[in-house]
Every structure is written in C-alpha cells, then in structure tokens.
C-alpha cells in the first residue's frame, strides 16, 4: 500500500474512529488498525490529531466550493479563516511526527471512505444550504474542541500538551462564531 | 497533589471570582440594563458559567489539600471597579469583559501545561468556554464599531452578518499564553 493511500485511510477513518467526525465501512477497520499500529503511544494521539485537522481542512474546502456558500459572505470568509487555521494545526502536528521520524498524516481524498460530512456537503453536488453548511461546521468544531480536551489529558510530552491546550480554545471560538451566525446561543455549556 | 497545583487552582478561582464580580457589576449599569436583551442574557449566563468554573477550581483546590479561594484576583479588582463606574458605556463594558476573558483563556491554557493529567482537562475545557465568551464579545464589539449594534438582538441571521466577522473574531491560530497570570497571584495568603 502506498504511503499516500495509507495516510488517507488514517485521515479519513482513524480520526473518525476516535472523534466521530467521519463514518467508515467495515473493510476500513483492518486498514485503520494496521495504520494505527504504525504510530505507537504518544504519536498515535498526535497522528489522530493531524488526521482530524486534515478532515476539517477538507470540510472547509468543500464548504467554500459548495454552490450556496458564496450567498453568505460572512460564512464564506469565516470558512477561509477556519481552513487556514486548521491547516496550520495539521502542519504543526505533522511536524511533531516528522521530528519523531514518522510519516506525516496528509491528504483528504474523496475515494473510498469519505467522512459523513462529505456526502452532506457534496451530494447532490454542492447543494447544501448555507445554514446546513454552518450546522455541519459547528459539529466538526465542537468535536475537535472536545477531542483536544481529552487529548490534553492523555499526552505526556510538554510540546504536545501545549499544542493541544493552545488549539482547543481556537476550535471553540470557531464554533461560537458559527453558532452566532445560526442565531444560536454561542456558549451552550460550561466546562 | 503539589503546592503548585493548589496555587494555580486558587489563582484560577480568583480570576473566575473577578469575572463573576465584573459581570454582576456590568449587569447593574444603565448601558447594559437598557441594552439588547440578547446581551443581557449572555451576561447572565456567562456569570453563571464563571461561578461554576470557580466552584470547580475550588473543589479541586480543597481536594489537593488547600483552601478554597473566594476572593477576586487582587491585582485587577480596583481596575475592574474603576472601569465599571456608573458612567461606563457599552463599549467600555464589552472591552473590559473581553479583556478579562482573554486573560482567563491565556491563564488556563498556560496552567494546563503546568499540571498533571488529572487537572489538565479541567483547565483546557475551561479555556475553551472562556474563549467562546471572548469570541462573542469580539463580535459584539465589531457590531458596535461598525454602527450595527442592532445585530446583537436577533439580527444574527446568516445573511446579515458583516463579511469580516470571522477574521475579526478569530485572531489566533494557536491561543497565546504570554498574558497568563503568575501562578501565585491569586493564592490564598
């Protein structure tokens, strides 16, 4: 299996298994298991975080390309900001993998095991309403913020802890502004 | 648990107490009482969330063998009181609240790296909630600066928000910690 193919499988499914962002078929389970074993201990959490960020990047790319996104400039521009920040997060996690001499987790691909949001945004092609796109984005950001709260407790290296702690509030802010756009209360729960 | 844990939990509680005091004072100001209902509701719920955070930090401080901190952070108490004088306008209130939330996010984010796995999720989760408070306040400040204060009350329908709202309210890719408070600043003396 090529490096890119394996990396995609982790990105599309490995993070989904942990973070419930995407859905995977049963055939993917063995591949995920194989890939997960490539990253042991601390690096497994790092790899899952990178994959989760890649999924967010893929989602926002799809959102920006969606037919109705441009109808709401605030949503389209927010998506650009979020995309940029998630890409930076992914690059940071991947730099940790590289420093440990492990392959970075890269790429989102539509073939094979698309996350659940992919169908929601793109089928029928790009027809999701701006409101539906924002709702999907809230779900992704909420899950990411919660995942980093958990990851911060599991990581042991100071660099990884600081990165997770520094990203969690950023994902939470994404969700708050998206809720504001939806006319919802921006901070639904206490810690 | 260590003395360091007790100190950072007490300091975090003192900052939460300060936020509770600030939102309580702000809620009594004419600028807020006569302002948008959505903003008043936000301030009430945010005050309650800060109270919950203070209780959580104090419970952990006691669990760690320390005393609970019921006082507000001593370094900011006078600053907050002065900023929320009777004549304070809405922009002044929003700026102060936004600044307090930013300090809390930076402090909790920093403290997450100073403590062990048991307390770390509490600090990160609290930082995330305070960051959401700040994002909302930055949005309302943006509306105010743009002369679109009416957007606060029910005008947040998707098509009505200014295009630059995302960039204005999401200033960081990684939340900074240079503004975190000293670990013993709010410790019980």
Please report the total strand number of chain B as a whole number: 0
Parts with pLDDT < 50 across at least 5 consecutive residues of chain A: 1-34, 109-113
Q: What's the order of the H and E elements of chain A?
A: HHHHHHH
CATH class of chain B: Mainly Alpha
Structural class of chain B: mainly alpha
CATH topology of chain A: Ferritin
CATH architecture of chain A: Up-down Bundle
| Total domain count of chain A | 1
Commentary on this structure:
The complex is a heterodimer of chains A (191) and B (189). Chain A is an all-alpha fold and 191 residues long. Chain A has a single domain, classed as Ferritin, core subunit, four-helix bundle (Ferritin), CATH 1.20.1260. Chain A is 71% helix and 0% strand. Chain A has helices spanning 3-19, 26-36, 42-65, 73-99, 116-122, 130-154, 158-182. In chain A, α3 (42-65) runs antiparallel to α4, α4 (73-99) runs antiparallel to α7 and α6 (130-154) packs antiparallel against α7 (158-182). Chain A is globular, with a radius of gyration of 16 Å. Chain A starts with a helix and ends in a 9-residue tail after the last helix. Mean pLDDT of chain A is 79; it is low at 1-34 and 109-113. Chain B is mostly helical. Chain B has one domain (3-169): Ferritin, CATH 1.20.1260. Helix content of chain B is 62%, strand content 0%. In chain B, α1 (3-28) runs antiparallel to α3 (37-63) and α1 runs antiparallel to α5 (90-112). Chain B is globular and about 50 Å long. The two termini of chain B are 19 Å apart. The model of chain B has no long low-confidence stretch (mean pLDDT 93).
């Amino acid at each position: 299996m090529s490096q890119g193919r394996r990396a995609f499988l982790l990105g599309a499914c490995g993070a989904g298994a942990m973070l419930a962002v995407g859905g995977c078929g049963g055939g993917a389970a063995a591949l995920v298991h194989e890939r997960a074993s490539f990253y042991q201990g601390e690096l497994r959490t790092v790899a899952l975080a990178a994959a989760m960020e890649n999924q967010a990047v893929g989602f926002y790319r799809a959102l920006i390309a969606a037919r109705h996104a441009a109808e709401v400039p605030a949503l389209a521009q927010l998506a650009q900001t979020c995309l940029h920040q998630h890409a930076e997060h992914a690059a940071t996690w991947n730099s940790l993998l590289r420093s440990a001499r492990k392959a970075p987790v890269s790429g989102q691909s539509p073939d094979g095991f698309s996350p659940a949001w992919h169908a929601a945004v793109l089928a029928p092609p790009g027809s999701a309403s701006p409101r539906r796109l924002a709702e999907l984005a809230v779900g992704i950001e909420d899950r990411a913020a919660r995942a980093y709260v958990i990851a911060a407790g599991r990581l042991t290296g100071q660099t990884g802890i600081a990165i997770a702690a520094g990203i969690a509030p950023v994902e939470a802010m994404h969700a708050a502004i998206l809720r504001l756009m939806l006319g919802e209360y921006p901070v639904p729960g206490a810690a | 648990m260590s003395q360091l844990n007790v100190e950072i939990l007490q300091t975090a509680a003192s900052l939460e107490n300060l936020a509770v005091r600030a939102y309580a004072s702000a809620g009594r100001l004419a600028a807020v009482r006569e302002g948008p209902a959505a903003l008043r509701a936000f301030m009430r719920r945010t005050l309650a969330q800060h109270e919950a955070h203070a209780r959580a930090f104090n419970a952990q401080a006691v669990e760690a063998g320390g005393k609970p901190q019921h006082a507000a952070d001593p370094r900011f108490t006078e600053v907050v009181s002065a900023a929320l004088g009777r004549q304070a306008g809405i922009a002044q209130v929003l700026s102060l609240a936004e600044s307090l939330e930013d300090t809390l996010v930076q402090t909790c984010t920093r403290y997450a790296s100073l403590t062990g796995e048991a307390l770390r999720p509490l600090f990160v989760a609290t930082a995330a909630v305070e960051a959401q408070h700040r994002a909302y306040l930055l949005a309302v400040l943006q509306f105010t600066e743009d002369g679109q204060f009416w957007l606060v009350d029910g005008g947040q329908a998707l098509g009505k928000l200014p295009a630059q709202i995302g960039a204005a309210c999401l200033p960081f890719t990684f939340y900074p910690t240079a503004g975190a408070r000293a670990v013993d600043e709010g410790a019980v003396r």
